[in-house]
Amino acid sequence: xxxxxxxxxxxxxxxxxxxxxxxxxxxxxxxxxxxxxxxxxxxxxxxxxxxxxxxxxxxxxxxxxxxxxxxxxxxxxxxxxxxxxxxxxxxxxxxxxxxxxxxxxxxxxxxxxxxxxxxxxxxxxxxxxxxxxxxxxxxxxxxxxxxxxxxxxxxxxxxxxxxxxxxxxxxxxxxxxxxxxxxxxxxxxxxxxxxxxxxxxxxxxxxxxxxxxxxxxxxxxxxxxxxxxxxxxxxxxxxxxxxxxxxxxxxxxxxxxxxxxxxxxxxxxxxxxxxxxxxxxxxxxxxxxxxxxxxxxxxxxxxxxxxxxxxxxxxxxxxxxx
Length: 322
Fold this sequence. Notes:
Shape: elongated
Oligomer: single chain
């Protein structure tokens, strides 16, 4: 099917292409009736704007850069997280008519030939040389949980630290005095953010931190929880990714875990299961970083938009202690 051109709309409406462009983009000083007539003709002909042509005229490339790290591929959890981040970015980009260019964090020199509107840096643990190169070339940068200095940049706070503080506050409100913290044994930045938030919280309140690290296969789960209890924990915040899985495994080991143990889980993608199990959980939405980036893209590129955006999170109270 042949695309209807701007010139064809202009000829059918009996006006110039400049007037047609002004009408369809709500610019210029056309009379209202003229503007509406042009829009009606465009709709009748099925005219849709050529986004690539518009991009060329505006200096936009309609492409987003995504930074990938070889180091993250050596950790199964980091690799899975990176795959999810890339998938959501591709989906959001497609909705806005953008393509995605994937580049390694160890090759900042590739930015010299890359044509990007913005560079998305999803993992604060990656090599930041690519960020410095982007800044030197005037390429706007969007980064997760990393402050971006400069005129053209956006920091997206994913909410993991806020979620930890909310979960701990909830447990404290229920009367918990010694809250243990379960975290995955991994180099994923979100785990570092969560543990740092927990340690800061305990320091402010003058409490002794009780941290237990769980292996990927969860073989040490019961032992680590038992150790927390032996150290005096009367509640647990499970920052591990699979909150329901942790809960169900604790159910199996009920003979060594007190039934009245207070339990809060982090929730990233299993909210419905958490709700069915009656688990109190704190929901975070890191997948919304890509959508948020496009919502603020115009301001990011112009250099005068918001510098920090917080993604939403919410605490959902459950009906059971554990």
